[in-house]
Structures are given as structure tokens and as C-alpha cells.
Amino acid sequence: MSDEVLVEVEGGIAVITINRPRVKNAINGTVARGVVAALDELEERKDVAAYVLTGAGGTFSAGMDLKGFLTGDFPHVEGRGFGGITEAPPKKPVVAAVEGYALAGGFELVLSCDIVVASEEAKFGLPEPKRGLVAAAGGVLRLPRRIPYHIAMEIALTGDHYPAGRLYELGLVNRVTPAGEALAAAKEIAGKIAANAPLALLATKRLVTESADWSQAEMFAKQASIVNSVFGSKDAMEGAAAFAEKRAPRWAGE
Predict the structure, then answer these.
(1) What is the mean pLDDT of residues 226-232?
(2) Helices 198-210 and 234-244: angle between axes, nearest 10 degrees
(3) Of 175, 173, 113, the residue nearest 142 (C-alpha)
(4) InterPro entries, alphabetically (predicted)?
(5) Is the pLDDT of residue 2 over 80?
(6) Residue 6: what are its φ and ψ, rounded to 5°?
(7) How many CB atoms neighbour CB 211 within 10 A?
């Protein structure tokens, strides 16, 4: 990790901050590798159940560092994608906390997250066509799966900016906050997630993300291969015991 990617762990939540505010948190190779290094450690930690991804200085990310691009500094990591997550998002749940701009690759990072909290002043967009590029880090692939086709095409083809309120109406943003409060709201949601059983969270996210193309004939068999170990886990027994004894569960992640 480097100073361009900051990590803070508290209460079962890891806040990962892109820390290049002077360039609106544009993503370069150092950031991408820093995110990968952070996640490689955090994914194995039992004291971390959820992530919050955000940017420093009042901006989420303006996308790829175009000056770096011109010099061959590509913000991709083999097998992980742009910014270290677009091709292989983390196994644990990720909440995006968006202030300011989430444009181009910045928007694609948001689309790699599971829940999106945005300030009322946040702006989203895929301006790649304005620069002779294509939103190839998941933007044009994921966006039509999250919002209606014609609106996704408008966003992808015009390259214009769209306010958080509009994306909230479309169901892409979970919660809109006053300016400056996106991180606090994202941490609140992540805290509710982190209070739940770790194995159940991993299985639930995996089912939601993998089941989109499962046929009706195979879906329950595939689900069983993922969830059977959860039902036989120590945490499942602990959850039932805690309910019966009217106390908070003590999860072991086993």
C-alpha cells in the first residue's frame, strides 16, 4: 500500500480511501496496486466484514489519470481490472461513499460496489466517448443491468454528467445525503452489514452476484453448493442460540 490508498479499520468495517485529492482522485497504477494490496490483506481478516470505498477531499474519483495514460501508466492490475476491483470485486460487501465527481473509471468503481451512498451534490457519468475512449472497465457492461436500457444508453453515449438524485430515482443509488455526509451514511450501512454473520454475508453476496444467469432447473442445486456449509457452521448454531437466549450473537466466522 502507499499514501495514495488509505485504510482505516474500525468496528468490523474497513474504509478504503483513494487519496489523490489534488487530481480529483484520478486513478493511476499506484492506486490500483494499492487497492489490490489492501484487499489482499483485508479479505483474510476476520475482524473485517464489510468495506466502504471513498475518495479524499470531497471527490470520489474523476476516473483514469489521463496524464499517466499518455506516459504508459495504466491503472489496471492483471486479473483484477481497473482500480484493482472492476474485473474481480471483493468477496466481502462494498459500500461506495460518493461526494463530488464519480466519472468514467470513477463511476465504474462505483458500479463494482454493492451499495451506493451519494451526496446530493454528487455527479456521475461515463465521458469516455468525449475523449475518444470507451468505458471498458465495466461501465457499458454493468450499467444496462442496473438501470433501464434507454437511460443507460443515454448516459453511455452522451458522456454527460447526471446528478445523484436522478440515479436514486433509477435505483442505482441507495441513499442520497446532504453534502459532506455520504461517508457517515455509508459507514452506518456498512456497520449494519458487519453486525451479521461473516459466512452468511459471503454466501449471500456470492449468490446475488453469480445467480443472474442460472437457469430455473439448476438454481437450487447451485445455491445448495454455496449455502450448505453455512447452515452447518458454528455461526449458524450461535445465531440460533443467541436468538433463543435473547442476547447478541458472538460470531466466529466459522
Answers:
(1) 94
(2) 120
(3) 113
(4) ClpP/crotonase-like_dom_sf, Enoyl-CoA_hyd/isom_CS, Enoyl-CoA_hydra/iso, Enoyl-CoA_hydra_C
(5) no
(6) -105, 145
(7) 13
C-beta separation of 91 from 201 below 8 A: no
What pTM, to 2 d.p., does this model score? 0.94
- Return the half-sphere exposure (C-beta side, CA atoms, 13 A cut-off) of residue 138: 24
Computed on alpha carbons and rounded to an integer, the radius of gyration of the chain in Å comes to 19
Which residues are CB-contacts of 212 (< 8 A; sequence separation ≥ 6)?
Answer: 145
Cα 167 to Cα 116: distance, rounded to the nearest angstrom:
10
C-alpha 34, offset from chain centre: 16
Angle between helices 149-158 and 139-146 (to 10 degrees): 150
**Is there a contact between 137 and 86 (Cβ–Cβ < 8 Å)?**
yes
Catalytic residue positions, numbered: 108, 128
Place of cell 490500483: 32
Q: Which of 10, 9, 8, 34 minimizes the C-alpha distance to 20?
A: 34
Angle at 166 between CA 164 and CA 172, to 5 degrees: 70
pLDDT tens per residue, range 94-147: 999 999 999 999 999 999 999 999 999 999 999 999 999 999 999 999 999 999
